[in-house]
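To the structural biology subgroup,

Please find below the input and predicted structure for 30S ribosomal protein S16, which we are adding to the shared reference set this quarter. The sequence is reproduced verbatim from the submission form. If anyone notices a discrepancy with their own records, reply to this email rather than editing the shared folder directly, so we keep one authoritative version.
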Amino acid sequence: MFLFIVINSKSHREGKYIEKLGFYNFKLNIKFINIKKTLFWLNTGAKPTKTFSKLFNEHIKFNKK
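Predicted structure (tokenized):
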């Protein structure tokens, strides 16, 4: 299982995170992303990874249906 988190770019990857945005359980193919919190951080200048961007866009498309 992976956590989607906001972390300072100068912190260690396993260090303390600022906020948890969601999770992805790849074994069960279950994904939860808090859209409101994610959009807040993206609008304040957070830079998502390519993997998170892909999963977030899929999540947005799925939730619009």
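Summary notes: The mean pLDDT is 89. The beta strands are 2-6, 19-25, 30-33.

Regards,
Lab coordination
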